[in-house]
């Protein structure tokens, strides 16, 4: 039995240029509250799909939507303030 082996080095997995830059990591950190709010919204929507929708599920989804919207607004306002200051 012969083994099939690749002759190339492992690409992409350990390439230095594939690591995020400091600026990209800072951008992710800045957007993290909005990302987590979106995750909470998706979690609430998934929980509502698991059973018959009740008033509590509707409230949970509305609360998650408001939280996601507030996080996006804060992110947008912060970006606008930075552009205005620059």
Key structural traits:
2 helices, mainly alpha, 0% strand, 86 residues, flat
Entry summary:
With 86 residues, the chain is mainly α. It has helices at residues 22-50, 55-85.
Query: Using only CA atoms, what is the Rg?
Result: 21 Å
Distance between the termini: 66 Å
The level of helicity is 55-70%
Range of strand content: under 5%
| Largest β-sheet summary | none
Shape: flat
Number of strands: 0
Mean residue pLDDT: 85
Low-pLDDT stretches are: none
| Annotation field: number of helices | 2
Overall structural class, as computed from helix and strand content, comes to mainly alpha
What is the string of helix and strand elements? HH
Characterization of this structure:
- The structure is a single chain.
- The chain is mainly alpha-helical and 86 residues long.
- It contains 2 helices and no strands.
- α1 packs antiparallel against α2 (55-85).
- The radius of gyration is 21 Å and the shape is flat.
- 7% of the residues are buried.
- The mean pLDDT is 85.
Write the SSE topology.
Blueprint: H1 22-50, H2 55-85
Helix pairs in contact: 1-2
């Amino acid at each position: 039995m012969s083994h099939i082996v690749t002759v190339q080095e492992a690409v992409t997995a350990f390439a230095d240029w594939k690591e995020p830059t400091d600026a990209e990591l800072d951008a992710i950190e800045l957007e993290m509250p909005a990302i987590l709010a979106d995750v909470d919204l998706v979690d609430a929507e998934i929980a509502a799909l698991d059973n018959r929708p009740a008033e509590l599920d509707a409230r949970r989804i509305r609360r998650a939507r408001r939280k996601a919207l507030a996080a996006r607004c804060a992110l947008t306002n912060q970006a606008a303030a930075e552009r205005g200051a620059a």
